Amino acid sequence: MRISYCVRWLWKTSCGFRIPIVVYAGMGVLYVGISLFFVYVCKHLIDIATGVSADALGIYIAWMIGCLLAQLAFSAFRSCLVSRTETALQNELHRRLFVHLMESCWSGREKLHSGDMLNRLEEDVQTVTGALCSTIPSVFITFFQLCGALFFLSRLDIRLTGVLVCIMPVALLFSKSYVRKMRRLSREIRSTDSRIQSHLQENLQHRVLIRTLEYTAQAVRKLGMVQEELWGKVKERTDFSVFSRSMVQVGFMTGYAVAFLWGVFGLQQGTVTFGMMAAFLQLVAQIQRPMVDLSRQIPAFIRIFTSTERLVELEELPQERQGTPVRLEGEVGVRMEQVCYTYPGGSRQVLTDFSHDFPPGSLTAIVGETGVGKSTLLRLVLALLGPDKGRVVFYHGNREVVASPQTRCNLSYVPQGNTLVSGTIRENLRMGNPDATEEEMRQALHLAVADFVFALPDGLDTVCGERGTGLSEGQAQRIAIARGLLRPGSILLLDEPTSSLDSETEQLLLQRLSGQLHGKTLILISHREAIAQLCTSVVWMKKP
Fold it and tell me: pLDDT per residue over 352-401, tens digit each?
């Protein structure tokens, strides 16, 4: 990715925060101006003390104290400003990327691991916000300090300034030959770091399974191998960085020695005062420090551009089509017409010329062995996937609408497995309908055969851990069904809703759904043929 594109992206990202960033830079420039004036005051104080100048001592002491107090105030204000701006920008960038990722297309074969996404949202966002709020303004301030110090030194001795200007850039130019390799190493380090986070996240999420399989040692060994790879890349980058900085420091040490000896010979010959000598050393330090800081920004900017590229990759993930929801009132049916679908990169067609009509108010079981495309069918109805051929249509009376993200408002979906999130049962239920009343939640739980909730000590306010920890699989599954029932959609999609239920509870659930959900179209997926006997119609699916 070109650097110019990264710069444009950073500029766009700074929108809304440019004023505080400019204020921070302006305060830094004033701070530099005060520090240079402080050098001038110190020179005069020494010249007054040595009898070279007849100016009033008290006035310059007052100026010196004023400079110190002003530097202290400016430093505190800048620290508060950059901290607040960086936090606000980080929050905004997190929100923007989170929304984009949540609205991105789902293909069933995701390009990025969720751990990699989290690593980018944390580490790379922090790097970019630090760059916009601190690093880039600091480079501007540092450059201003360098120019100001060189100008001040030139007013004292133009020849010394010329010598220093000739010496120092040589070291900087020498260090630039490592930029390309440093950029490659930085990207490899960030990628390896993402792999570590992905490994940690996935293994912690499945730690019970890993322990029961006695696979912990292998998981730890794999973590160690990736960490060893990270260590090697960090060591290589550090070696390059240290060598580059060492070359720069050699040049600066030479410059300092030249300035010091220049002053010594000037004192010996009477062409330099003690005040000028002190000013020389202070100004050389104010020239060297910015040069060192600028040289250190080379690897910093490489990391910034690397992080920018990684965040741009997140923003370039294709998004679903956005628009106004299309709701069909009354009883709604679904019709699939000659639908074909193959997953991206796959060689086998999962659905081939599949057609079926799910009439309004019907209860249909989709039955078949694993891998025949049952869940894929639901994803096509949900418009998470788009058919390669044919179409999926929602209809009510004479009105027809082709399935799209905008038609999801007509659907309520209960995926297979434990899909509860950390929080209370009440919070989980209100994901289906944020405005649900106590009575509506009670009724939904009853239909889902989840009346056990009211026997719990805290009832609806019972806290669930991650993925429903604290509840059995069957309990979590029934609460998830109740959540789906609270959603106001006319079509209810259930993917293996009884996989964790016993036969008695399963039969009671289906009886309640078919007998009391009047006006809703139910599409139920199962691999158990016994369920078909409890439904009004059955779709038998087989592998092509």
Answer: 899 999 999 888 888 888 878 888 899 999 998 889 999 999 999 889 99
pLDDT digits (tens, 9 = 90+) for 449-484: 988 889 888 888 888 876 666 788 888 888 989 998
- pLDDT over 60 at 174, yes or no: no
3-state helix, strand, coil in the chain (%, to 5): 65, 10, 25
From CA 108, how far away is CA 351, in angstroms rounded?
Answer: 15
CB-based burial label for 85 (10 Å; 0-12, 13-18, 19+): buried
pLDDT tens figures, 378-391: 999 999 888 999 99
Higher-scoring residue by pLDDT: 426, 247: 426
CATH superfamily of 3-315: ABC transporter type 1, transmembrane domain (1.20.1560.10)
| DSSP E strands, 60-190 | none
Q: Are 429 and 479 in contact (CB under 8 A)?
A: yes
- For residues 65 and 89, is the Cβ–Cβ distance under 8 A? no
Secondary structure tally for the chain: helices H, strands E: 16, 11
Q: With contact defined as beta carbons under 8 Å apart, do 311 and 120 qualify? A: yes
Please state which CATH class domain 333-540 belongs to: alpha beta
Q: Where are the domains of the chain?
A: 3-315, 333-540
Q: Is 326 exposed, middle or buried (0-12, 13-18, 19+ CB in 10 A)?
A: middle
Q: How far out from the chain centre does Cα 63 lie? A: 48
CB 466 within 8 A of CB 304: no
Q: 210: helix, coil or strand?
A: helix
Q: How many residues does the chain have?
A: 544
